[in-house]
Amino acid sequence: MGGRHWFEFLQPLLDAASIMAALIAVKMFARGYVDDAAWAMGLLAIIVFFLSSKLTGLQRPDQQITVDGEIVSIMTTWALTVFVLAVAAFVTRYGEQFARSVMFAWVMTSPALIGLTRMCLRIVQVGLLRRGIGSRRVAIAGWNQLGQQTKLNVENEPALGLQFAGFYDDRSSDRLIADIEGAPGAEELDESSPALLHGSLNDLVAAARSGEVETVLITLPMRAEKRIRFLLDELSDSTASVYIVPDFFVFELLHSRWTQVGGLPAVSVFENPLFGIDGAAKRVADLVIAISGLIVISIPFCLIALLVKVTSPGPVFFRQRRYGLDGQEIRVWKFRSMRVCDDGPVVKQATANDPRITRVGGILRRTSLDELPQLFNVIEGTMSLVGPRPHASAHNEQYRGLIRGYMMRHKVKPGITGLAQVSGCRGETETLDKMQKRVEFDHQYIRTWSLLLDLRILARTMLVFWKQPEAY
């Protein structure tokens, strides 16, 4: 939005300066001078970095990015840059002009310096905007639940550069306050709240034409087509920037984004959020960690298999049908922990003191060691290390008709561990509320996914490894 243009211009310049400054500092420390080869390498790195940033979204001004997401994007973009430079140096033998120690130091310091300058710029930007420097006065047309949520978003995101100027609506303040009951922040409204209503829609048009309001966010419901058309027609005779905030939140979207279908603008409602570079980065991380994990645990893995085999009759491994990505059926590997191998149209969940569980199986289930063979699923690509836990196909068919949005958890690959599991939602789901809570955590994971979140969940999984009283 307006007020961010200087930031969008300065930030790429600082990224370029950080890359070159890191190279100059390393060369000066190691050799005491900077030669032409270093200047050429730095310039090439800057060009490749900016081209890569278009793929990773680091330099995408229309996309809000969190601090965690920015760190991951910086590392991913720089990794792509280094890869391209390494290939170019190998093909042209240009890399022979640089000492390995110099190149290693540069590769390590550049992303750190880029992250540091971005953090400092972010701090400066927020400080200036909070003082009203570079900010724009924004009015919201339509005081309803969506309007109230939009107001909170504007106030909680000072980096947007928007200063809330009030609500405008044709309805009375008493009726409006009653209408937004239950909306975020509505509980804080009191007798002074009607002051937030600055007038009618006609008053908003007048304020926009006079320059009192510089940005207008229309949060009227989509069914109010006549009022929306009125505002668009009248505000076209002003210099105000106008945005429509559609009330699509009723669909509980996960990763909605604008796209095109044959040149026509459209909003993706239900879509796999891990597309492009995000999906590739997650897949690489899965392969590296899964293969490394199998190597590290190879001896205990074989010991567990031996214990399962000698303590109860039956196979070592149990493969159960479950739903994978996009609801496709997959076969999930597990160490057999029961005397039965249920995989039919009806699957009874394990309960406390379940007689079907073997002695070794009880230990495996409490410590989640029975899930270790699912590393094979990760390597073959049917599962991920982190994601919504896959339920038995019979349970999916049972709950998909009872819980709204249940199947949306299958828009990403299922995981060995997940946000729900490290947040206490593990074990028997004897009530619908418990399964509902799991699904809510799954939706939250998909909505806020980042590589850093995956690493945090893996770390938390290690912490709760031995303390799972509800795992039967």
Keywords summarizing the entry:
472 residues; two-stranded antiparallel sheet; 50% helix; 11% strand
Give a structural overview.
The protein is α/β, with parallel strands linked by helices. Helices cover 50% and strands 11% of the residues. The chain has 16 helices and 11 strands. It has helices at 5-31, 36-56, 67-92, 100-130, 145-156, 173-179, 201-210, 225-235, 277-296, 298-311, 359-366, 374-380, 393-399, 419-422, 432-447, 451-463; strands spanning 136-141, 162-168, 197-199, 215-218, 241-244, 257-261, 264-268, 317-323, 329-335, 384-386, 415-417. The strands form 4 sheets. It has a 5-stranded parallel beta sheet, with helices on both faces. It has a two-stranded antiparallel sheet with strand order 6-7. Helix 13 (393-399) links the parallel strand 10 (384-386) and strand 11. Helix 3 runs antiparallel to helix 4 (100-130) and helix 9 (277-296) packs across helix 12 (374-380). The longest helix is centred in the first third of the chain and has 31 residues, at 100-130. The chain is flat and about 85 Å long. It starts with a helix and ends in a 9-residue tail after the last helix. The relative contact order is 0.07.
Short description:
The chain is of the alpha/beta class. Helix content is 50%, strand content 11%.
